[in-house]
Amino acid sequence: MMLRHLIAEQVLLDGAFTPAHLEILAGEIVRIHRLSPGEGRRRAEIVKASDVGAGAGMTVVSPRHQVLPGNVDTHVHINEPGRTSWEGFATGTMAAALGGVTAVVDMPLNSIPPTVNVASLRIKQQAAAGQTYVDVGFWGGIIPGNTAALRPLWEAGVFGFKCFLLPSGVEEFPPVNAAQLREAMTEVASFDGLVIVHAEDAETIERATDLGGRRRRLSHYADWAQTRPHDAEVAAVSDLIEAMRETGCRTHILHLASARALDLIAEARAEGLPLTVETCPHYLCFDAEAIPDGAAEFKCCPPIRDAGNREALWDGLREGLIDAVVSDHSPSTVEEKHRGAPDLQQAWGGISGLQVGFSAVAHEARLRGIGIETVSAWMAKHTAQLAGLERKGSIALGKDADLVIYDPWQTHMVSAAGLAHKNPISAYDHFEITGAVVGAVLRGTPLYTAQDTTSPLAPVGGFLQGIGSPSLSVLGR
Ligand SMILES: [Zn+2]
């Protein structure tokens, strides 16, 4: 069933909640009627009586519930094909849908092959076809020697290009050195593309590991985090800003974990450099000292740091120095997570949290007096802008009718085994959250509703194309 009318007391329009009636046609929001409080009930009667309405395709949302734009998660590792046992398109996008994320952009690595040329992009799209529950787009990757593949990838519709400045964790996606980074940035700047960077400095981490005496065993999280210190992020961000000055390339810092880099970021912005920054739910929810020893489900790179740093990241968001919050969902099998246990050094570095990220951040934001309107900007509007997804990220005329129904009062405790992710291991296991996603709509098609929690979801997701592609429409409709 396609939704034709949605009437609700609380619809997020232009950053504020208001009673409204949305009219949807072919998946697009075609009319928005702002209503006075309570008017929705009467409006529902009118729509029901009209020829178009006749009851079908109409939803009246409970006055308790809020209608938000679908979240856009631009940092997700799906891992299929090649490491499908870690996560796949079906399970990953199902988790996204259930977590209120209606569009994901998949990272170029951890799948095999990595997305470093058009042929590998096609392999990924083939693997994804027909089994996605939300819309899916793809980042390309920069590795040594693939500069000539970047423009063709851009024209094939990737959203930008990821690179590492130190080993990525998988050998088929090697890092670039300073010269290779600049070569790639010069090329990407030539077509006004975007480079997205895992910003940790290899030498600083080498030095920190040597200073620590290469301990045989590091099971206390904060001790392990010392091997990937704040300075590694600060040094990498500093180098990146220099490379931006030299090449003029639009650049995005992935998963910022250290608030100590914020001053550099503020200066670069003041200088007018086209720099954007994201952080992740786990850096905003947890602190290193409180993580139980050997709990590899919290291992990620860069690491979670102390509580003071966590609050400084919240400040960075409030001040707008950090633009966006994305999951960096990077799961693996339980075996990979437990490798070398309780030593954290060998465990896979990546947190599984796609389904939980939005509600966890909303919960933590509320504890700090920050409203869901602001969280929605970080996780829907700004991420859509980052990727250039003009049809996504807000409830407005001409946008896709991608909607999330949110109950701000429903309380639940996360169970990793109960999430739709492929592997039942997550840092959010036993995390208590107030506020829950109870419904989602993708381009006018309800994926699930608060009233119907038993019907299976349908894989109605399509492919998203970046701004470099001649065809901007969603494929596969
Ligand atoms: Zn990542």
Describe this structure in words.
Its cofactor is Zn(2+). Homotetramer. Keywords: Hydrolase, Metal-binding, Zinc. One of its GO terms (cellular component) is cytoplasm. It comes from Nesterenkonia sandarakina. The radius of gyration is 22 Å and the shape is globular. Helix 5 (178-190) packs across helix 8. It is an alpha/beta fold and 477 residues long. The chain has helices at residues 39-49, 89-98, 118-128, 150-155, 178-190, 202-211, 221-225, 230-247, 262-270, 281-285, 307-318, 334-337, 357-367, 372-387, and strands spanning 5-13, 16-25, 28-34, 58-60, 66-69, 71-76, 101-106, 135-138, 140-141, 161-164, 194-198, 250-253, 275-279, 324-325, 403-413, 432-442, 445-448. Strands 9-10-11-12-13-14 form a 6-stranded parallel beta sheet. The relative contact order is 0.16. Helix 4 links the parallel strand 9 (140-141) and strand 10. The protein has 14 helices and 17 strands. It has a single domain, classed as Metal-dependent hydrolases (TIM Barrel), CATH 3.20.20. The chain starts with a strand and ends in a 29-residue tail after the last strand. Helix content is 30%, strand content 20%. Bound molecules: zinc ion. Zinc ion (ZN) binds at residues 75, 77, 107, 328, 330.
